């Protein structure tokens, strides 16, 4: 949510943000309702002041008939005004919650994902002297991925992982948590992008259910058709650990000396993928249920952008350590999320699709979420300011598993295990062998 004062003073900038994000919000109507709301608040405050003055007059004595009559009149007027105000306030909240975040100066203006731009690449697309298989062909060959039984048992877009695929998953988790809690690695990556903080991440296993009111404050309630909504509990299954990491400090005032606060959470995530009908139906790239390690940070406003740069550096480090070809992509205005100020993705090379596909996202929200969540920090001058928030993928396990299987496949069908993961594999397993 944006500060209404900022919207009043920067109306055209807000209208432009609505336009370039392909949204529809009537900013003029919002400002008109805001004007009515402020006027009514002033009237209510005046009446309350008169009511309090009258109460003081009769505090130590018996009220006169005139005072009683005046008191009843004020009470009725106040009740009518408050009811009218509540109706206006409800409309105000609906509209202001629809207003998107503004965009950074380096965000590209574009209509959709076709206008995103790769800003740097690492490694060359993997070449083979044989026809490479895709991850499902490899998964079936090795008996480590199954989508047929899961379809019968759970429905489409679910899957089973078995054997070495499961071991790779937990090796990836170990790799992420060891990296993000290593102060020397964090210090090195922070220095690389000019981030002054070398504070490591705190590991978290968060809840996978969030109340509706929390998801709305996170601006993750809609599109509701993409969520798993639990009607009896008025709650939702989360679509990312971010959804329950972000509210961790709701209604708190954090001491500035404790910033930044950095979390890395591991959870199962759930998405209906309602808007992706017909896309990625084969394989495990786009699932209703998947496991994910997610980063969430809280920091002072002046360090918000460099914190995102630091997070992207972490993502690049993780994928580079796996030795998977990838590119960093700047997301254009028409493809970025409503609460995002700046969004960047990592796309890994998938030989089975002969293209780069998104495996990581990094979202810098400024104070858009913290205003709704009321997460503030006390500055050195004693002022309370809203923190800025970043969230980003460490690993979406299914997608990075695809990248490993497809990039590390061998001519005989075996799959090499990335060296960085081997210490977490049984007997430092180097290959997933075909059972012949």
Textual characterization of the structure:
The chain is 39% helix and 21% strand. Strand 6 and strand 7 (235-237) form a beta hairpin. It folds into 2 domains: 4-98, Serine-tRNA synthetase, tRNA binding domain (Helix Hairpins), CATH 1.10.287; 113-432, Bira Bifunctional Protein, Domain 2 (BirA Bifunctional Protein, domain 2, 2-Layer Sandwich), CATH 3.30.930. It has helices at residues 4-9, 11-20, 27-57, 65-98, 135-142, 148-153, 163-180, 183-193, 212-217, 242-245, 304-321, 368-373, 397-407; strands at 117-122, 145-146, 160-161, 202-204, 209-211, 228-230, 235-237, 253-255, 261-270, 289-299, 326-330, 342-350, 355-366, 376-378, 384-386, 388-396, 415-416, 431-432. The model has no long low-confidence stretch (mean pLDDT 95). It has an 8-stranded mixed beta sheet with strand order 1-11-12-13-16-10-9-4. It has a 3-stranded antiparallel beta sheet with strand order 5-7-6. The radius of gyration is 26 Å and the shape is elongated. It is built from 13 helices and 18 strands. It has 436 residues and is an alpha+beta fold. The longest helix has 34 residues, at 65-98.
């Amino acid at each position: 949510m944006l500060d209404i004062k900022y919207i009043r003073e920067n109306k055209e900038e807000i209208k432009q943000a609505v336009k370039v994000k392909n949204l529809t919000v009537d900013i003029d109507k919002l400002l008109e309702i805001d004007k009515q709301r402020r006027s009514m608040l002033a009237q209510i405050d005046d009446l309350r002041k008169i009511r309090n003055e009258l109460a003081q007059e009769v505090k130590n004595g018996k009220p006169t008939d005139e005072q009683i009559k005046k008191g009843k009149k004020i009470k009725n007027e106040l009740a009518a005004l408050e009811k009218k105000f509540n109706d206006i306030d409800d409309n105000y909240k609906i509209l202001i919650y629809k207003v998107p975040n503004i965009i950074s100066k380096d965000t590209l203006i574009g209509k959709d994902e076709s206008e995103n731009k790769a800003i740097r690449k690492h490694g060359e697309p993997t070449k083979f002297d044989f026809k490479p298989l895709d991850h499902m062909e490899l998964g079936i060959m090795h008996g480590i991925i199954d989508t047929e039984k899961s379809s019968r048992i759970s429905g489409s877009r679910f899957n089973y992982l078995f054997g070495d695929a499961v071991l790779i998953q937990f090796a990836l988790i170990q790799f992420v948590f060891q990296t993000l809690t290593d102060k020397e690695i964090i210090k090195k990556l922070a220095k690389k992008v000019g981030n002054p903080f070398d504070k490591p991440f705190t590991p978290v296993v968060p809840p996978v259910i969030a109340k509706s009111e929390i998801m709305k404050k996170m601006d993750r309630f809609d599109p509701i058709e993409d969520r798993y909504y639990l009607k009896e509990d008025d709650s939702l299954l989360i679509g990312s650990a971010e959804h329950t990491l972000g509210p961790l400090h709701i209604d708190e005032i954090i001491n500035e000396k404790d910033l930044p606060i950095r979390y890395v959470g591991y959870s199962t995530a759930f998405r209906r993928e309602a808007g992706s009908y017909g896309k990625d139906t084969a394989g495990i790239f786009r699932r209703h249920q998947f496991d994910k390690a997610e980063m969430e940070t809280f920091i002072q406003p002046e360090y918000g952008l460099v914190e995102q740069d630091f997070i992207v550096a972490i993502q690049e480090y993780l994928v580079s350590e796996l030795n998977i070809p990838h590119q960093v992509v700047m997301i254009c205005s028409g493809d970025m999320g409503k609460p995002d100020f700046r969004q960047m993705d990592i796309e890994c090379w998938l030989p089975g699709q002969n293209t780069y596909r998104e495996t990581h996202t990094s979202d810098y929200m400024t104070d858009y979420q913290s205003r709704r969540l009321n997460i503030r920090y006390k500055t050195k001058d004693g002022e309370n300011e809203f923190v800025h928030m970043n969230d980003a993928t460490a690993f979406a396990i299914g997608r990075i598993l695809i990248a490993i299987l497809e990039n590390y496949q061998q001519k005989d069908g075996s799959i090499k295990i990335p060296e960085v993961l081997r210490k977490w594999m049984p007997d430092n397993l180097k290959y997933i062998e075909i059972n012949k």
